[in-house]
Fold:
Amino acid sequence: MVAVAVDHRPDLQRERRARALPPQAARSRHRATVARRYRAAGVCAVALAACAVWVQAGATDRPGSGPLAAPGAGPTRAVAARMWVVQPGETVWGIAHALQPTGDVRPLVDTLASQLHGRPLQIGQRLLLP
Structure:
């Protein structure tokens, strides 16, 4: 006895062609998909920007609590500082003698010299006085 298999299905190529969309409908579907992807990317970008703004606002709304503040440091406040503006012909020793006319001026000279980092005085330079 011989068995014969018969496939009753129509040709797969014809079946696929029948189910395929017309070219204009396929392009329209592709454009809609691309538009959805762009819209989703835009929403993600806006959300990311909003989070960045929110984080920055949270980090700077309290003085003394930024990323560079010491742990447990309270709010910062300005302190009055004395400045010396260097005039022509002045030296570090002369400035120290003007600030401290009596006593040993060497510690004051060392403090002023540390601000200069080994560089010479410049006319108009501002020195922070201790």
Remarks:
- Residues 21-60 form one domain.
